[in-house]
Write a structure and sequence with these properties.
This protein is of the alpha/beta class. It folds into 2 domains: 8-138, Rossmann fold (3-Layer(aba) Sandwich), CATH 3.40.50.2300; 146-234, Arc Repressor Mutant, subunit A. The chain has helices at 30-42, 53-61, 79-86, 103-111, 124-138, 171-182, 190-197, 208-220; strands at 22-26, 46-50, 67-70, 94-98, 116-119, 146-148, 151-154, 159-162, 165-168, 226-228, 232-234. Strand 10 (226-228) and strand 11 (232-234) form a beta hairpin. Helix 2 packs parallel to helix 3 and helix 6 (171-182) packs across helix 8.
């Protein structure tokens, strides 16, 4: 049996990282799914894992995820059936991950609405690059750098640049900063940020967001992340 080819345990925080987000994995292979969830979480992503097609489609309909990783050969409801059902609904971008390497299957998946298609086995870094590309298109960004007032964030490296000085953020710091900088000028509540950085099986720590934001404001200044009393936090748009 083939296995997922990646070396996540050897990747440091200065290596290639994807944009931090909450994603949905619809995959019935327990060994492959477990390895993939572990690799994605080590790269700072929150992952919800549905193990059959029906549960996966139900989760997809809730529109809680930035992107969906979808297997084709699923019990209950195949990946192609999920794509057909989701095509006329508002759904997150879908990246097909499958062992089916026939051109016909790839064409079918893309024609049914998949945003991209990758064949197993694959290296994790190849999957992460495709995720970054899909999210740039979904957010209408031609490049990966994100800017807000005096700070710039590179999602591919977790490096923040503030007044010309670069520093690498921790996975949790990056998760929070990315959530805020994805929509500068928009207030995000604590629960909204938590929903972006925690998956179904993760234990939500009551003050984790406050601690991370306090640390970021102490490092870069209070004006970088503004607290809106009783509402949440906001980063200012560039040029504002």
């Amino acid at each position: 049996m083939w296995q997922l080819e990646f070396a996540a345990p050897h990747i440091s925080h200065r290596a290639i990282f994807p944009e931090t987000m909450r994603l949905l994995l619809i995959e019935d292979d327990p060994m492959f799914g477990k390895a993939l969830v572990r690799g994605l979480k080590r790269n700072g992503m929150a992952v919800d894992w549905a193990r059959d097609g029906q549960d996966g489609y139900a989760a997809l309909q809730r529109a809680e995820h930035a992107i969906t990783l979808l297997d084709i050969g699923l019990p209950g409801m195949t990946g192609f059936e999920i794509l057909k059902a989701a095509r006329n609904k508002k759904a997150s971008p879908i990246l097909v991950i499958t062992a089916r390497d026939r051109v016909e299957d790839m064409v079918t998946g893309l024609d049914l609405g998949a945003d991209d298609y990758i064949v197993k086995p694959f290296e994790l870094r190849a999957l992460l690059a495709r995720i970054r590309a899909i999210m740039r298109r979904a957010n209408d960004r031609s490049h990966s750098l994100m800017s807000s007032k005096e700070i710039t964030l590179d999602p591919s490296t977790h490096v923040a640049t503030f007044r010309g000085i670069q520093s690498t953020l921790s996975a949790r710091e990056f998760s929070v900063m990315y959530a805020l900088m994805e929509r500068p000028g928009t207030i995000l509540s604590r629960s909204q940020i938590e929903s972006r950085i925690y998956g179904w099986s993760d234990e939500v720590q009551s003050n984790a967001v406050d601690v991370v934001i306090h640390g970021l404001r102490k490092r870069y200044g209070k004006d970088i992340i503004r607290n809106i009393r009783g509402a949440g936090w906001i980063v200012t748009k560039s040029g504002s």
